[in-house]
Amino acid sequence: xxxxxxxxxxxxxxxxxxxxxxxxxxxxxxxxxxxLTGPYGDVSELKSAAGGIARPALGEVxxxxxxxxxxxxxxxxxxxxxxxxxxxxxxxxxxxxxxREDGGVVGxxxxxxxxxxx
Length: 118
Prior knowledge:
This protein is mostly beta strands. The protein contains one helix and seven strands.
């Protein structure tokens, strides 16, 4: 992600909807979650923490979006909004996202930077 966020901003995550192959099938019950956890001094520290090797030096904080439960309606465009606190420490944050469906979970992560207020 190339966007750098500042404390007090909101991060918007747009989910991509992939329609099922059976138009007559009932839409699956899906829950979409996303959160930012950090800060880390740099990306290498963040990756070490993801491997269980390190913790954030400044104390860990987490900013979460409310879970989104799409209805399955045609043309639906689910969005998650993560409010970044006004006092968020600057650094690299792990953006962790997950899709829960039918008892299973698929997820991933990315890196987001929060810069000091200008």
